[in-house]
Amino acid sequence: MADPQLAEAVQTFKALQQELQANAQTRQQLISQINETEMVKEELERLDEDSTVYKQIGPAMIKQDLVEAQTNVSKRLEFIQGEMRRVCDKHVALEAKAKEQQALVMKLQAKQQQQQGTAQQAA
Amino acid sequence: MAVDSPAFIDSALKVYHVEVHRAIKAQEEQLSQLCSARDQLQQTMQTLAELPDRLRHTAMIPLGKHAFFPGHLTRTNEVMVHLGDQYFVETTAAAARGILQRKLDVVSTGVSRAEQQLQALRARLDVTQSSLRDDTTDGEATEIRSSLEESDALLASAASKRKQAAAAARQRQQQQHGQGVVSRVRTASGYSYTPLGLSEGQQQQQQQQQQQQQDPEDAALQARLEELIRLEEQQQQADEQEAPCDQQQQQQQQQQQLASIQEGEEEDDREEPAAAADSKARVHPAAQHLQQLEEQTDSDDEDAQQHGLQPPQQQGGVVSQVVERQPKAQQQQQQQQQQEGRQQQEKAAAAGRIAAGTAAAPSRPPLKSALKKGFLTSPSKPKASSSSSSTSSSSSSTTSGSGSSSGPQRSSATAFTGAVVERPVLAVDDSKRDAVVPAVVERVPLAAPPPASTSSASRPSKFKLRRMGLETPE
């Protein structure tokens, strides 16, 4: 009787785990993007004012203003940082849910074991 | 399948083993990527250095995949550098070198970090493998499986041996340092206190009586114990002489001097009234030490267990995880502390805190992994007299890893009856120690960001790593 319940709980738990993993992956990607963008921002700030900056759009390189490039990069960095914050919050929420689910699964497992024990004793 | 059954443990270990293998492969891949990136950067920088030397270079210019044509490289000082994230900048060769150098720094830190993590993983693998081997080769899996009576008998015999050793050691000290000392003689009925104003003849008689009461085996054991005690003392002195830090040397020398002065005078005073306060006094400095340690290191799940183990590591060579040695060691250290008060501890803690800031944190994970397995490797004591001083000090401070970092960490001696699990199976030989020791820096707070070329797909999932006790760099 507890079996379908237990199976369901286990399924939801597994799903949560997978979501957590995907979340972790996106988080890693975001981290690497943040690092790269920070590096670019730093390099752009080191450049002289009269340096020529190009941005690669597809196969072509388009000349860009240094100041414009700097602002673009800063905005991009802020955007990625916001994404990162969102992903972190989601991660925390998912973790809490996963813990709950795990507790539930263990409770059901224990109950099932008890039932099996009593059934064996009766038999 | 019960959680405790050896079959379950075995299968769990095997799964863990496979997991560690996978993590190692992923880490190796990442490391090779980083290394190739670093090599490319270095090559490019080399080329950039040579490029502006000439106004024009003649070269074979590639045309597609399979063809070249002869040409010239002109305008050798103008290069376009990729900054990352689809941005390029036109600049001089020298400036380009600067940009590449900064990139190279980032990649190098990534490489070293990846290498350290790989070593930690490899150490983990070693530990898992050895535990697997033990489980399969040992007939009795673990000695915990013995019957209750057997284990009781073992405990009783160990306790009695300990008492004998302590009594023998005390008697030896008393004989060395003479009068006014109360001797706690172990008789058949327990302990009896007799003034040591007794003539030496009587003392010898008592000793002989003692020895007669014991079996010849026990006598041999006692002799061996005394040998070991002497060996350890020699080691202590050897360790203290070769200790790298000056402060510790001073402290230890002071302690030694104080010990030699005090032993004769105050041992009796300490013994009786301190018998009751023994445990308290012992616990108090240990507790204070623990507090200091806790302030130093970050909070963590298994802090309590680890702190229980760290003080023994951090003693200046006095680390006696030999169970029989503890009473004597504790007495000595107790006296020293009561003499010098807290000042030395604080000094040492302050000194050790700086070093321990980095070293304490890293020393935890190997412990953590060892604890998770539920065993500690205590080096077999006779083998403790190994060649190099650093390894000998690390062997006396035991537990997997964290050996080399304990050098700068040694604060003033704190007696501590930590949870000492003696498991004679895993003798940590030198090769393993060397493999394990450098792998210490797992938990160093990673200021440098991972390089941009990290592909998240090739790294093990963050949660797997966390389960294995590794921290992912973020």
UniProtKB/TrEMBL annotation, chain A:
What Pfam families does its record include?
Answer: Prefoldin_2
Output the Gene3D superfamilies linked to this UniProt entry. Answer: 1.10.287.370
Coiled coil regions, renumbered to chain? none
**Record key words, sorted:** Chaperone
The family classification in the record reads: Belongs to the prefoldin subunit beta family.
> Could you identify this protein by its name?
Prefoldin subunit 6
According to its UniProt entry, this protein's organism is Tetradesmus obliquus
Automatic annotation (TrEMBL), chain B:
Where is this protein localized, as stated in its record?
Answer: Nucleus
List every stretch annotated Disordered: 164-218, 233-416, 443-474
BP GO annotations:
negative regulation of transcription by RNA polymerase II; protein folding; response to cold
Per UniProt, what is one Pfam family of this protein?
Prefoldin
Give the Low complexity compositional bias ranges. Answer: 164-176, 202-218, 234-257, 306-361, 377-415
What keyword terms does UniProt attach to this protein?
Answer: Nucleus
Recorded GO CC terms: nucleus
A GO molecular function assigned to this protein is: chromatin binding
Q: Which family does it belong to?
A: Belongs to the RNA polymerase II subunit 5-mediating protein family.
* Protein name per UniProt: Prefoldin subunit 5
Q: What is the protein's species of origin?
A: Tetradesmus obliquus
